[in-house]
Design brief:
The chain contains 8 helices and 23 strands. By secondary structure, the chain is α+β, with helices and mostly antiparallel strands.
Length: about 400
């Protein structure tokens, strides 16, 4: 297996390996055609369908959508990584979008070009809205009556996670599809599957499958509007079968221009307003009101959620078999994390999380534990390294052994 040992510094939230692998040179097209079973549509090749997506100039739409994510996280880890409802607590959009990583969420969506977008998350009776309107970006939580605000010059600057604040409003089927297509390379077979209907629209299905063994991903299926080329639904399927790992799609969509007042927002009377990202690094309150920064407080474990700070990252392998090797600053590893979690000032969630980590493994890399989900596996070693990728546990251990 080829190994790329080029090293770069990890941004705080850039540690986990990209879900769909590293972009390679060209897409390997399979000249398959749409099959019967759905709407009767003209036959297209995968190349033609991708060109249709690329040529789509739709910038105005409104409707509703649903995102379901089933990573198979342990109950405790699910809570720590965003298992609760979207409404409630801080109005910081980074916190809210992170909660899409687990469970099922519904939302209303509206867009009018690059300067106006709105997502309203609907979980229960409360709402959380992200609004980008010209020079302003707002987040508002109806349950806590808290608002978050950035001016456009701040919102267009890249944050610690390497993304623009306004870009986080693009957590949509279109954005997911673009991410998938960018990642498809010579390690991917791309074909056209059955036709379908999504949100009442006729659609083709673009299917991406790994050529390599060892990936946790079985395929990615993108439903594409037959008329305008807009991706309507994205499904990430596990190589082990079962329900989709991720299923994100419109349930209703209208490509008419939304009314201008859809994007207007003024904080309600009495709302607490936080300007900019001044409180982004303060950390949240634990179950008993203790201030702590989640997994970042524990050496080694922070890498699971991107908290490796200035740790060095090496990209091992390619495509769907890509694994990130992270050297935790100071060489602190699993043993240090266990000691920190057992400390008298540590919240009980920390020890519970340590206990929820998977089985101990060993090899030429040394010893460690594997934290497993349906999509991503992470190996945390005793000597301060983390290996993480959308690969099976066996493939991950094999890569760690070869890297030593």
């Amino acid at each position: 297996m080829a190994t790329n040992t080029k090293t770069h510094k990890a941004a705080r939230y850039a540690v986990p390996v990209a879900v769909f692998g590293v972009a390679a040179a060209t897409i390997a097209m399979v000249p398959a055609f749409a099959n019967a079973g759905g709407p009767d549509l003209p036959k297209v090749t995968a190349q033609q369908l991708i060109e249709k997506i690329a040529a789509s100039d739709v910038q105005e739409l409104s409707g509703s959508a649903r995102v379901s994510t089933d990573l198979g996280l342990p109950t405790l880890a699910s809570g720590l990584l965003g298992g609760g409802g979207v409404a409630g607590g801080s109005a910081d959009p980074q916190d809210k979008v992170a909660q899409l990583a687990n469970g099922t969420h519904t939302f209303r969506v509206a867009a009018d070009g690059p300067d106006r977008q709105k997502l309203t998350f609907l979980d229960g009776k409360d709402e959380y809205s992200l609004i980008h309107n010209g020079t302003d970006v707002w987040g508002y939580d109806s349950q806590s009556n808290e608002a978050w605000h950035e001016k456009h010059d701040e919102a267009t600057a890249k944050g610690k996670d390497g993304h623009k604040t306004a870009d986080r409003l693009g957590a949509s089927p279109q954005q997911l599809a673009q991410d998938v297509l960018k990642a498809a390379g010579t390690t991917t077979d791309v074909s056209v599957g059955d036709t379908a209907q999504v949100a009442g629209r006729d659609a083709y299905q673009l299917v991406l499958k790994p050529k390599q063994s060892g990936s946790t991903v079985g395929s990615v299926q993108i439903s594409v509007d037959a008329k305008n080329g807009v991706p309507l639904r994205v499904q990430l399927l596990s190589s082990q079968g079962g329900k989709p790992i991720v299923d994100a799609g419109f349930t209703k969509v209208d490509f008419a221009k939304p009314a201008a007042d859809v994007f207007a927002f003024t904080p309600p009377k009495g709302a607490k307003v936080t300007e900019g990202a001044a409180e982004a690094d303060k950390g949240g309150k634990g179950e008993h009101g203790k201030e702590w920064k989640g997994l970042d407080a524990f050496p080694g474990l922070g890498a699971l959620t991107g908290g490796a700070g200035d740790g060095d990252v090496k990209v091992l392998g390619e495509g769907w078999a890509t694994v990130a090797q992270i050297s935790v600053p100071g060489g602190k590893g699993l043993k240090d994390a266990e000691a920190a979690a057992n400390g008298k000032d540590a919240p009980k969630e920390a020890k519970q999380f340590i206990d929820s980590l998977g089985e101990k493994v060993n090899g030429s890399f040394g010893t460690g534990r594997v934290f497993s989900t349906r999509l991503v596996n992470a190996l945390i070693t005793d000597d301060g390294k983390v290996y993480v990728g959308a690969v099976t546990k066996d493939a991950l251990v094999k890569t760690a052994n070869a890297a030593k």
